[in-house]
Specification:
- There is one protein chain.
- It contains 15 helices and 18 strands.
- The chain has 512 residues and is an alpha+beta fold.
- The chain has two domains: 138 residues, OB fold (Dihydrolipoamide Acetyltransferase, E2P); 258 residues, Bira Bifunctional Protein, Domain 2 (BirA Bifunctional Protein, domain 2), CATH 3.30.930.
- Helix 7 crosses helix 9 and helix 7 packs across helix 15.
- The longest helix is centred in the middle third of the chain and has 22 residues.
- The chain starts with a helix and ends in a 32-residue tail after the last helix.
């Protein structure tokens, strides 16, 4: 590698000695590769078009045959062939300060960025090409690209050096194009329905809106601890209290939790709140939104994910947590009549393991669901009516205050969305937050803190509201058929590589 780098450095010096730069300031691009390929698809083999273009890209392949050479260059849209003829490139060298055909043979390597001027030609073998008239170096690459035949197969290196992954794996580039288009689509979809996007603080004095362990940092000037947000919920609800009836935020969330194929400590979500609505309204909104996203991104409501075919067109199942647990395990939690010990024995008989934290019927029901049912939900399924113990911000059912008006959407065994009719009773909300605070004081780092300002906002008065959160990364996994969340996050969190600076200390007050 050091020999290759040294050889390429010598080529940069050669360019400079000839009066040219190895790293250009700019280049005027007239067209993209994809535009040219589509526009001149009609050309017959061997036909030329006197259509002037200037195009820039990275050299991906190079083949020199005497006085003729063929390059492949890649830009953001795709690849196109360059046809280089010594007679054409060298014909004007005496009158202009230009790089010669010999220069491009000697100096240009695979990985370099070059700019070219030329016209359109379809070769006798039927490949659309740019017949190069002149060229210039835009950026000299000092390191070689991974072997084009084998690609970048080291999974960790793909995540750690994403730029290499994007260069040599077209599928990765397509994933992130799809991601960008889906995020843009969601914003337009909501904006067209009169939702207003609100920016809420990432640094917060109280981390609330979800059961999750926050990252903690410190503000030096104010000398106070701060938390990276674990949800946008409580601030968006404050906006509803203030009179905004339809709001959302699409942004980054931070949770100090484990890393897996479906978890990254930093992820993207969209949270949506609509006044005068309940969880059924949000269920309808969720189904409509996701169907429209899938149709726009995939062109069909039937898609493949790994070994599963997912049909979004069929009516999505809506079923309570108790009923779906009974369906998959045979356990009827209503039959226990509140006898927690009997329920524990029954769950143990089907090999459900749980900790001392599972100390109520509702938590036990949820544990059975997570261990025995969740992974079975391949087709889009709304699981409704959650226990109040695990839903401290959701409105209880009028007929049964042990269950709340909440649903989660599951597809391919993963939670994709979470929503509920919001709890707007400030007295009930305070009692639940106090219970959460007691759990936190006992060592449950994922329990809610008491947020006095939020409680004050509820006392001012919040209208009936439905709220919804959708995990964007998991949605993109589904749409792009990606097995891991790290495949759809450009720069996922990874453990730092071991370096020689073993004794280097981290700065004080860093996020922890």
């Amino acid at each position: 590698m050091s020999e290759i780098r040294e050889a390429r450095l010598q080529k940069t010096n050669l360019l400079v000695s000839k009066g040219f730069t190895s790293y250009a300031e700019s280049f005027s691009v007239s067209h993209t590769t994809n535009f040219l390929i589509q526009k001149f698809d009609y050309l017959e083999n061997g036909q030329e078009e006197d259509f002037s273009v200037s195009i820039a890209g990275r050299v991906m392949a190079k083949r020199v045959m005497g006085k003729i050479a063929f390059f492949k260059i890649s830009d953001q849209e795709g690849e196109i062939q360059l046809y280089l003829d010594k007679r054409i490139i060298n014909c004007n060298l005496e009158n202009q300060k230009l790089l010669s055909f010999e220069d491009i043979k000697e100096i240009v390597d695979i990985g370099d960025w070059i700019g070219i001027y030329g016209t359109i030609k379809k070769t006798n073998k039927g490949e659309l090409s740019i017949k190069v008239e002149k060229w210039q170096m835009l950026s000299k690459s000092l390191q070689p690209l991974p072997d084009k035949w084998h690609g970048l197969t080291d999974i960790e290196k793909r995540y750690r050096q994403r730029y290499l992954d994007l260069i040599v794996n077209p599928q990765s580039k397509n994933v992130f194009k799809t991601r960008a288009k889906c995020i843009s689509f969601i914003r337009k979809w909501l904006d067209n329905r009169n939702f207003l996007e609100i920016e809420t603080p990432i640094l917060q004095s109280e981390a609330g809106g979800a059961e999750a362990r926050p990252f903690i940092t410190h503000h030096n000037t104010l000398d106070i601890p701060l938390y990276l947000r674990i949800a946008t919920e409580l601030h968006l609800k404050r906006m509803v209290v203030g009179g905004f009836e339809k709001v959302y935020e699409l942004g980054r969330i931070f949770r100090n939790e484990g890393i897996s194929t479906k978890h990254n400590p930093e992820f993207t979500s969209v949270e949506i709140y609509q006044a005068f609505s309940n969880y059924v309204d949000m269920m309808n909104l969720t189904e409509e939104l996701i169907k429209d996203i899938v149709t726009d991104a995939c062109g069909s409501l039937i898609i493949k994910y790994q070994n599963n075919e997912i049909n979004f067109a069929k009516p999505w199942l809506r079923i309570s947590m108790k009923d779906i647990v009974k369906k998959y395990t045979g356990l009827d939690f209503d039959s226990f009549n509140g006898d927690f010990q009997e329920a524990k024995q029954a769950t143990k008989s089907i090999n459900v393991e749980f900790s001392s934290k599972v100390n109520s019927m509702g938590r036990l029901l949820n544990e059975v669901f997570e261990q025995k049912v969740e992974s079975e939900l391949i087709e889009p399924t709304f699981v409704m009516d959650y226990p109040v113990e695990i839903s401290p911000l959701a409105r209880p059912h009028d007929a049964n205050n042990e269950m709340v008006q909440r649903f989660e959407l599951f597809i391919v065994g993963r939670e994709l969305a979470n929503a509920f009719s919001e709890l707007i009773d400030p007295v009930d909300q305070r009692e639940r937050m106090q219970l959460q605070q007691s759990l936190r004081d006992q060592g449950d780092h994922e329990a809610h803190c008491i947020d006095e300002d939020f409680l004050n906002a509820l006392e001012i008065g919040m209208p009936p509201t439905g709220g919804l959160g959708i995990g964007i990364d998991r949605l993109i996994m589904l749409i792009t058929n990606s097995p891991s969340i790290r495949d759809v996050i450009p720069f996922p969190l990874l453990k730092p590589e071991i370096t020689s600076n073993k004794n280097e200390k981290l700065p004080l007050n860093e996020v922890k």
